[in-house]
Amino acid sequence: MSLFRKRNHYFSLTDVLSSQERVPITFQVAVGYLGELDASAEGNILAAGTTLELPYWLVTSLYQEDGVGIDLPKQYKQAWRDILAADAKVVNLQRLCKYFYEFGKLVSLIRVRDHQDIIDLLIQTLVDRHRELTNWAVHAIKQENEFFEKLDDIEQELSRRATSAELNLSNWLQSDCGQIRKAEMVQAHDRLVSSSRTFNT
Amino acid sequence: MNTEEIEFLAEQEEVTIIPKFTDSRVVHLISGDIGPFRAGIPCVVPIWVAKTLRKKHKCKIVAPEWMELDLLEQKLEEEKSSRFFTPMPSDHYMGIAHLLLSDDSDIEHADRLRLTIKNIWDVRVAKARASADTFLKGGGRHAGIDHLTQLEICNLRPLLLDALDTKHQLSVPMENMSALNTSAASGSLSESFSSASTPRRSQ
Fold first, then answer.
1. Which of A180, B12, B26, B60 pairs as cysteine with B18 (C-beta 3.0–4.6 A)?
2. Number of CB atoms found within 10 A of residue A169's CB
3. What domain range is B147 assigned to?
């Protein structure tokens, strides 16, 4: 199954977490009954002109209302775009935004005007960082490392996969022969058969 | 597929052995007949049979034709100087080398052969990685790579495919993202997503 799909479905934790990132939102009109969203608001009414940073999942249900404007999160704004375009390799994505790519994809859905810009930024960043990631993943002995800490969540997963393939190969080269194990599916089937057998008797 | 499975496939390749025993019976298998064996007369068998007999000191394994120092060094030079992948003498060169060139191997210069083959492997894998990166940067839609062996593909797969896939998933149109949590949260939200591709009604 593809990595991105696996990480982004309804029950996936990474998807829940990436839609938890915050998006700046401005209310141009006063909104009743939403005062709780703003800790500094008095009473139950959200004053006009309030700017808040709300989680993405909340913003999706608000952004199409009249009098509500959403802004780009800072990591997708021009300033950061310039930095990423200059040299994406040195940016600490982990600190900037843990789910840079997935959250970026989500943000592009609600900022229709910037959609293509954001997507281009994400792809360019991924491509620029890929070489470094490859080199690192192939030569990494242990995972705790300065470079690894700088990777976004999906990049970490990518490099973990690459490292495990590399480890697998070097283990094979060193040891005489490995043991071929049953495929996951066959094992699951065996378990199923044996459990149904005990159930029947 | 992982390394062990590819090694298993490599074991099906044939190799010449010189048996140290005589047995006129023929073993009939689906993949072909094995035997009869006559002491001192070369005989072609799959590598797994050769390995088993070797372990019991019942045969001597003869190196495959391509497993020759001069030839491999020439291949190494060729591989280094070429921008593309050059055809390998065997589809499982790495697997076969790993199987036949153990420390107590019958084959002469086993250690030097092993080193040369490892060098070829390193050159090829480095080349594969570099071209994968160029491909990703170039943004082409397809690329043709010839003469890669299974083990090399297996080694390259996680890096290249996952990265390409992530890149693709980032650029697919929004409709395909409908499985996302946020869009599936309620009916009105998925509706707002499907309308997101058309201009927004406010503003």
1. B60
2. 18
3. 66-171
Q: What sign for the dihedral angle of Cα B178, B183, B184, B189?
A: negative
**Assigned domain for B70 exists:** yes
Q: Which residue has the tokens 């092993």?
A: B114
CATH number at residue B82: 1.20.58.1020
pLDDT digits (tens, 9 = 90+) for B9-60: 999 999 999 999 998 899 999 888 887 899 999 999 999 999 999 989 999 9
Number of Cβ atoms within 10 Å of the Cβ of A129: 23
Task: Count up the domains in chain B and report the number.
Answer: 2
Would you call B4 and A134 a contact, using CB atoms and an 8 Å cutoff?
no
Tens-digit pLDDT profile for residues A82-118: 999 888 888 888 888 889 988 988 888 888 888 888 8
| Architecture of the A73-176 domain | Up-down Bundle (1.20)
Say yes or no: B72 and B41 in one domain.
no
| Contact between chains at B181 and A19 (C-beta distance less than 8 A) | yes
E strand residue ranges, chain A: 22-27, 50-55, 68-70
- Residue B18, in any domain of the structure: yes
Clarify whether residues B49 and B92 are in a common domain.
Answer: no
Query: Is position B182 within any domain?
Result: no
A2 to chain B, any CB pair closer than 8 A? The answer is yes
Contact B165 A16 (CB under 8 A): no
First to last CA, chain B: 53
The mean predicted confidence, pLDDT, of chain B is 80
How many other C-beta atoms lie within 10 A of the C-beta of residue A11?
Answer: 7
Between residues 63 and 122 of chain A, which touch chain B (CB distance below 8 Å)? 63-66, 101, 104-106, 108-110, 112, 115, 119, 122
Report the gap between the CA of A15 and the closest CA in chain B (Å). 7
